Amino acid sequence: MRGAVRQRPVRRVRAVRLGPRSVAALVLVGAVGVAAVGWPFLAPPTSQVAAHAQDAPWLFAGLLVLLVAVAAATISESGLGPKAVSMLGVLAATGAALRPIGAGTAGIEPMFFLMVLSGRVLGPGFGFVLGSVTMFASALLTGGVGPWMPFQMLAMGWFTMGAGLLPGAHRLRGRTELALLAGYGFLAAFAYGTVMNMAGWPFLGALSSNIAFDPEAAVSANLARFLAYCLATSAGWDLGRAVVTVVLTLTLGRPVLRALRRATRRAAFEATVAFEGRED
Question: What's the whole-model pTM score?
Answer without folding.
Answer: 0.79
